[in-house]
Amino acid sequence: MSESKGDAQALMPSPEDIEQYRRNGYYISRRILSDEQISEALTGSERIYRCDYDEVFPWSGNPRVDPNFGVPFTDRTLSRADGYASFHSLGLRALARLPMISAIAAALIGAKEIRYWKDQLIYKPPARESGEAEGVTGFHQDKRYWPTCKSDRMITAWIPLQDCSTTNGCLVVIKGSHRWRNNHALATFGERNMDFIKSKLINTEGDELVEVPLELKRGQVSFHDCYTIHGSYANVSDSPRRALSVHLQDGENRYRDLSFLRREKPVFQHSHDLICRKTAKGLPDYSDPEIFPTLHRVAAQ
Ligand SMILES: O=C(O)CCC(=O)C(=O)O
Ligand SMILES: [Fe+2]
To answer: Relative to the alpha carbon of 243, which ligand is closest?
Structure first.
């Protein structure tokens, strides 16, 4: 979408929007994507599903990095999540690295710099074909998947590739739950029993548990804090629900070395740790520009 500076400013969150994001843990943007951008992403996603890649990297075929690389997506009654989609498809890369998205993220979290962290292309099939729980994304906190990240200010941009409502399984957030800090085990993306997860949630703030379905029109993007508890229910429409999740880090994020835990329990290792460059101390460098490009930087005054 080509806009003048003034148009772009009008698409940014207002001070009230930012205040609400910090209080509630989520934000829904105005319509910031053009039909053309979405249609290129859709074409890109179908090409990924056919294993027709725009670019391939030395690590692409490592199943510990991307288990779906080289696996055609044929059984469309199943759900599927492709990590690293924006590396292998230029249409998806354009969306994942869109300046407007990282500018909004920077405004919401008050960061001077935003770097890309990772993305995931998610396909949720119509439930009628696949059975009730197929495609349900269990309530979880994104940060629980990234314990080696020092930052607590990471943020996710969720980009639907069609209109999204409760019928096709839109994203659902638990209002204010980014402040519920004691839910340490919420790496529960793959758990399909939502009531079970909800029964286990620890609400340290005493808030009511309010689920907010984020119903979005094509071209809108939602943002959530890395601690906001969120997931999605089954897709009971006739068409698949597709989305690109783009996870972003603030410029201050660094690798946290958890290897001192080795003797006690398995150490969490992110697949990024296998592919990014290393610091002088031999530790993963989460500012490697090849894997974590800087997408937004406030000019020095
Ligand atoms: O699309 C979904 O159902 C889940 C997406 C998600 O967990 C995320 O964007 O962080
Ligand atoms: Fe998530």
So the answer is: 1
Q: Is 148 in the pocket of ligand 1 (CB under 6 A)?
A: no
Per residue in 52-85, pLDDT (tens digit) is 999 999 999 999 999 999 999 999 999 999 999 9
Phi/psi of residue 10, each to 5°?
Answer: -65, -20
Helix (H) or strand (E) holding 36: helix 35-49
| Contact residues for 211 (Cβ-Cβ < 8 A; gap 6+) | 172, 173, 174, 175
DSSP H or E segment with residue 276: none
- The topology under which CATH files domain 5-292 is Jelly Rolls (2.60.120)
Measuring CA to CA, which residue among 228, 72, 73 is closest to residue 157? Answer: 228
Atom of ligand 1 nearest to the CA of 243: 1
Residue to mutate (ligand 1; options 222, 230, 246, 248; most atoms within 8 A of CB): 230
Q: For 23-106, where are the E strands, in sequence order?
A: 26-28, 80-83
DSSP letter (8 states) at residue 256: -
Q: 158 CB under 6 A from ligand 1? A: yes
**Which pTM value belongs to this model?**
0.95
Distance between CA atoms of residues 249 and 219, nearest Å? 23
Q: What are phi and psi of 50, to 5 degrees?
A: -95, 0
Q: Report CA-CA distances (Å) from 20 to 14, 114, 272.
A: 10, 20, 32
Is 274:176 a contact under the CB 8 Å cutoff? no
Give the mean model confidence (pLDDT) for residues 5-10. Answer: 82
Determine if ligand 1 sits within 6 Å of the CB of residue 142: yes
Between CA 133 and CA 12 the distance in angstroms is 36
pLDDT tens digit string along 144-169?
A: 999 999 999 999 999 999 999 999 99
Please identify, by atom number, the ligand 1 atom nearest to the C-alpha of residue 189: 7
